[in-house]
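Section 5.1 Outputs to date
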Amino acid sequence: MKIDKDKNKEEFSSLLRSTGRDGVDYVLEDLEKGGFFEAPASAGHHLNVAGGLCQHSINTCRAALMVWEGMQKLDPSVKAVKRESVIIASLLHDVCKTDIYKPTVKKRRTPIGTWEDVQGYGVTYKHFPMGHGEKSVIMLLLSGLEMTDEEMLAIRWHMGAFGLNQDSYEDIRNYDTARALYPLCAIVQSGDSLAASIMEMDAAETDEM
């Protein structure tokens, strides 16, 4: 997927500002300083290229908005979810990844079976090792963003069962309760999955399976 970083930055900022939420400009300023708009979305999977994280965030937001719009016709409870909340939670769910990927050289097997050096990304968690969804929530609060309970919970649990400690009764109960109380949790989780598994999957990744 070809990425236009300047265009994505403009769209990301426009979507976030469209919510009219207090603290948005502080968030954008901190993301810019932290390298969010240059960061990849992963080290070796979907959108593992410069600017991939912003692209993934936009894709997730687009998918989540489509899910939200469609589900309003099927279930009355979804009508209580505000569009601005869908944007906030889906667009900002992965800000925790801003500082974990570092450029490095990796080995890649060529079609003839030899190995070659290629530019890629390594992962480090030494900068604020708080976890995943919870780190995103804390970063946004520290930036001064006003968020509702449902937005924070949708970001915290956007990884679904992958973000659970299956040995923790407390984790499992909190996750189940959040999803039962707030439809936004399922909407953001769905948007994230659709973005990574469909919108961002390329032929090369499919061939490697």
